[in-house]
Amino acid sequence: MSPQDPLEPIVRQWLEAAGENPDREGLSKTPERVAEAWRLLLEGNGADPARLLQDAVFAESSDQLVCIRGIDLYSLCEHHLLPFFGKAHVAYLPDGHILGFSKIPRLVELFARRLQVQERLTRQIADALEELIRPRGVGVVIEATHLCMSMRGVEKDNAVAVTSEMRGCLRSDAGLRHEFLTLIGQPVTA
Q: Tell me: the pLDDT tens digits for 91-114?
């Protein structure tokens, strides 16, 4: 028999405090399931983005924008411990190095699997790309629905939070920023 996860008795206590019977049929295995789920949902804690990308940075003289759009993301709001979910769109303009395409969604997931706020998540993705591949520019846009706004509080089901982080030439060059926003399907105004 494997040792009990230290989260299990906490979940059990929480169920009792919420007025539930953790021994009833539908809840008897809930503490184990919740502990396992939370371990997965928070596996990004302490994860090193440099280690994730170490074998996927390649010397390449490309001077065109690289964009991965529509990356599904799921995270947990650190204020209410409720999920938020949506899409991340990430672009960079190489400066002698490119990154394997699959590493960008993995990088998004690494940071999303932490207790988060969307603003920090957006910034962390941009920071990691800037630090690890030193591109000429980075752009990150995240669009997400927050259950803390949909299920409680203002209870607005259709509200979508949009955050962006533009660095280097994607911040300073309106043409490149326009290209990025057009590629991800964002409305662009002059």
A: 999 999 999 999 999 999 999 999
Is 89 an active-site residue?
no
User: Measuring CA to CA, how many Å separate 142 from each of 20, 58, 69, 109, 157?
Assistant: 37, 26, 10, 13, 18
Contact between residue 150 and residue 85 where contact means Cβ atoms under 8 Å apart = no
User: What token pair was written down for 76?
Assistant: 């947990």
Catalytic residue among 80, 97, 178, 186: 80
Residue 118 known to be catalytic: yes
Per-residue pLDDT band for 4 (boundaries 50, 70, 90) equals confident
Tell me, yes or no, if 78 is annotated catalytic. Answer: yes
Strand (E) positions, 55-159? 57-59, 66-77, 83-93, 97-99, 115-116, 137-146
Among candidate residues 109, 116, 124, 146, the one labeled active-site is: 146
β-partners of residue 163 are 142
Q: Of these residues, 118, 124, 143, 179, which one is catalytic?
A: 118
Q: Give the dihedral sign, CA 31/32/35/40.
A: negative
User: Is 80 an annotated catalytic residue?
Assistant: yes
